[in-house]
Design goal:
The structure is a homodimer. With about 140 residues, chain A is mostly helical. Helices cover about 45% and strands about 5% of the residues of chain A. The first copy, chain A, contains six helices and two strands. Chain A has a two-stranded antiparallel ribbon. The longest helix of chain A has 16 residues. Chain A is globular, with a radius of gyration of 17 Å. The mean pLDDT of chain A is about 90. Chains A and B meet through helix 1, helix 4 and helix 5 of A and helix 1, helix 4 and helix 5 of B. Chain A binds a DNA duplex (30 and 30 nucleotides) through helix 3.
Chain lengths: ~140, ~140
DNA sequence: CATAATCCTGAGTGATTTGCTCAGAATAAA
DNA sequence: TTTATTCTGAGCAAATCACTCAGGATTATG
């Protein structure tokens, strides 16, 4: 029931971008040094982030990455889904309400996993990069849904 | 961010015991057939459940397993912790409030993981086997804390 | 224009975890 | 005494994780 390092790194990297928003793009190398994460591993992570349209890459010398939209509009859930896939504790509660389990009609536990999934989403989808950058998590005033 | 099959199987197996509580012990073989889970794998899982004092084994012919305490007093969290270890999305929020991360004092994301952990625990620790067996998850009347 | 700094792409790899199986001893009811 | 069960410990193939390696594409800067 652990998040991979990929997911953790992704959030930390995005936070670096969020804290320097609106300035020039930040090179991956800088993020790597600031957060002490392998640059080559970070590159892989940014592939996913870019595909999910959460960041934009700027090529060439003095290029780098910047957020594709304001930090207020990017949640932890967006980031984790981009690099780790759907947020679901078990496969059978992956898609909206449909599943491929076979025993779903008799499966009592499925309701538990749905609840778990929903409570996880509730936290991740209401916490934005802006919330984190502003230290708003410590006071409890995160965005409402 | 997925639960292992071990965790899922454990909850399902415990639910079988919960639904037949107070009768004779149930053989692992029966659980295996009812839930379509490999008997040998189940044996491994019951090692953990027994160590955590959630079930009692009764040896010999016509032996089996039974819950070590009433189904009202066993939560999904108890079961998952028994077979999967602590419920924590990342290592750095494992122990009560102490950690071994090094960068914890400067780590903004840690607060997010704490929130995530707490929301997961909130669901898992308030859902008992009795709740599930009674279908109480569908109506919303689970145990309060 | 040349060069250097960056993003971008795709493949490869050792270690760990997962999801089991296999073999057999210990115990107790029938 | 036989048979049904729990219990114990080892082993193993496949998948996943957490990276590394090698090199091409693009563009600012000197």
């Amino acid at each position: 029931m652990r998040l991979s390092t990929k997911g953790q790194y992704a959030v930390r990297a995005m936070l670096v971008l969020a804290m320097r928003e609106a300035e020039a793009p930040i090179a991956l190398r800088q993020i790597s040094e600031l957060e002490d994460i392998s640059a080559q591993y970070l590159e892989q992570i940014f592939v996913d982030l870019r595909k999910a349209k959460l960041v934009e890459g700027v090529r060439g010398a003095s290029g780098g990455y910047r957020l594709a939209r304001p930090a207020e509009q990017i949640t932890a859930g967006d980031i984790l889904r981009a690099v780790e896939g759907p947020i679901a504790p078990v496969e059978c509660v992956l898609h909206g309400d449909e599943e491929a389990c076979g025993r779903a009609h008799i499966c009592i536990t499925r309701e538990l996993w749905k609840r778990l999934r929903d409570s996880m989403s509730a936290v991740l989808d209401t916490t934005t990069l802006a919330d984190m950058a502003a230290g708003r998590l410590f006071t409890g005033e995160t965005r409402e849904v």
